[in-house]
Amino acid sequence: MADSITEKVIQAVKQFDMLEEGNRVIVGLSGGADSVALLYCLKSLEKILGIKVYACHVNHNLRGKESDGDQAYTESLCKDLGIELRVFSVDVMGASAKHKSIEEKARELRYEAFCNLSRELGAKVATAHNACDNTETVLMNMLRGTGLKGLCGIPPKRDYLIRPLIYCSREEIEDYCKENKLKYVTDKTNFSTDYTRNKIRIELIPKLLEINPSLFNTIRRMTYALSVDSGFLENMARDALDKAGIGDGIYETEFLRNLPEPVFTRAVSLMLKEKNIEPTSLRINGFGKIIRTGHGKINIEKNKFAVVKKGKAEIQFIPQKYRQINT
Amino acid sequence: MADSITEKVIQAVKQFDMLEEGNRVIVGLSGGADSVALLYCLKSLEKILGIKVYACHVNHNLRGKESDGDQAYTESLCKDLGIELRVFSVDVMGASAKHKSIEEKARELRYEAFCNLSRELGAKVATAHNACDNTETVLMNMLRGTGLKGLCGIPPKRDYLIRPLIYCSREEIEDYCKENKLKYVTDKTNFSTDYTRNKIRIELIPKLLEINPSLFNTIRRMTYALSVDSGFLENMARDALDKAGIGDGIYETEFLRNLPEPVFTRAVSLMLKEKNIEPTSLRINGFGKIIRTGHGKINIEKNKFAVVKKGKAEIQFIPQKYRQINT
Fold it and tell me: How far apart are CA B214 and CA A178, in angstroms?
């Protein structure tokens, strides 16, 4: 009889078209319970799904010997399971990302490694996010302030990334490890400095489970329904931008300002993202306002201006003048 | 200097076009802090907003002498403030609503009284729902399982109903009562049997406030943004149904099944609501499925069938045959 983790992984893989026969898939392997279970489960499904499993470990070098111990464990596990493993060693502390926490920088470097390996092997990347992570993400976004998109939680599939454990709870995963005699490391840095996520996980979720013992499933159903709504509105905005665009990142304001509100704000958000500008509500509102009034110029970010003039809207890069050097 | 409650009430009234000059407004007055504050605040704004304030108390007769005491208090308060008060006495226990809790029945009878008086006086009805109620409602819906609509919280305005305290927290309201020396009764039945809402209010909200002290504002902004999205999708569904309808509650399935998913499910939900059937996801999915396959018949509720045949979808009432009586 198949265990529930295997069943749920197959269900998620099929529902979200995560994998098809002949696919290669790289498991992001920290060595923790989630990723060890995911690796073992996908390996056991290689024949059934017609896939080939690889693993990738990113050593963040944040905990000295402990980090190296985790790496050594993933190496021995993959050797035992006959899985090809790639190890990347990254320098999180040296990474030059301003205004970012250590977690954010580590995450960025980790996904960069995943992305590169994915290209090299022509493979998808499976990360071990589970139903509990999904619920935590929804609550965290809600508490920080969010709109529809933030309530959609962790997408089960995005570009080359897939999350086959999205239907499994942490408890089920730990049981699966026990049943299959899988050892795993306990990654102490995992969110340990993220005050909000910790508080949500340790203090909030147990209270919520008292009210609704099926919390993770309830939230999973909600995020699925919301993703359908959100994706539809995002597509409408993308279509609208295609129609409003006249090339070179310039858009007709007449077309934009006649869009219904939810499509308008999403279109403005996409215009910002196109220029690698984080679409905060302050920026969306500011840019949206000058598009609506038909003219104006606002400083969006250092050296970047949103400009609306003669029926056209665009984001211009206006670099600082070279400092004059007195000779 | 104006106090924050008055400012926030004016803000809400203007933002949501709740009231205009010459309007009559009936305050639903339980005698609790919220409704007493609302009554006093709107009365103080009569000249500024150009409105005329009335009050309506519904005695649910659920707590014997205590209920009568509440009624007496509202009578003396309105006399002091020179406000015309109407009192309705309802029989909650005798109301014949199946599968409904006492709270639900009381609510139904209360709103029936509001609605009747609203018609009689040609007035809007203001209820005292505040920012905390809004947050509780969002969390309750989320814990019970919901989609976009349930996350929109309490609508600030719907038909003849307005909620001018929607930006005010319970704490601010109690402070306002203290400052203005307003007495109020403590309605002990108020949600006292609603396990989930109580648990959310007493155990959950304080934890959430530890993480985000501006919780009520954060959720208010979220529900506002979501309402815009939700309203837009609802309108699309209504427009689609108008186009798919051929009269007598019959709809062209060809048109319906080509709708994008979020519009389709909302259109099916509206078809159920039109026939006074609660649109549960089970019913929406069932009816949706036979619309998509192009034929079928399912029992939606006692004596009610969703029928899809020859490119047409409708809900048919098929009453039980009269029982044959052996003579």
Answer: 42
B9 touches B165 (CB < 8 A): yes
Quick one: CA torsion of B57, B58, B64, B68, rounded to 10 degrees?
A: 20
**Pick from A178, A155, A182: which is nearest to A166 by CA?**
A155
The DSSP element (H or E) to which A216 belongs, if any, is helix A215-244
Element (H, E) at A84: strand A84-89
C-alpha span between A141 and A137 (Å, rounded): 6
Contacts of A144 by beta carbon, 8 Å cutoff, 6+ apart:
A150, A196, B212, B218
Measured distance CA(A135)–CA(A219) in Å, rounded:
6
Enter the pTM of the model: 0.90
Report CB contact under 8 Å: A229, B200.
Answer: no
A chain contacts of residue B141, beta-carbon cutoff 8 Å: none
How many other CB atoms are there within 10 angstroms of residue B121's CB atom?
17
3-state secondary structure of B157: strand
CB pairs under 8 A between A and B: 86
Q: Using CB atoms within 10 A of its CB, is residue A115 exposed (0-12), middle (13-18) or buried (19+)?
A: middle
CB nearest to A232's CB, from B146, B203, B261: B261
Given a cut of 80, whether residue B192 has pLDDT beyond it is no
Strands A296-301 and A304-309: antiparallel
User: Which amino acid, residue A58?
Assistant: V
Residues B95-116 have a mean pLDDT of: 83
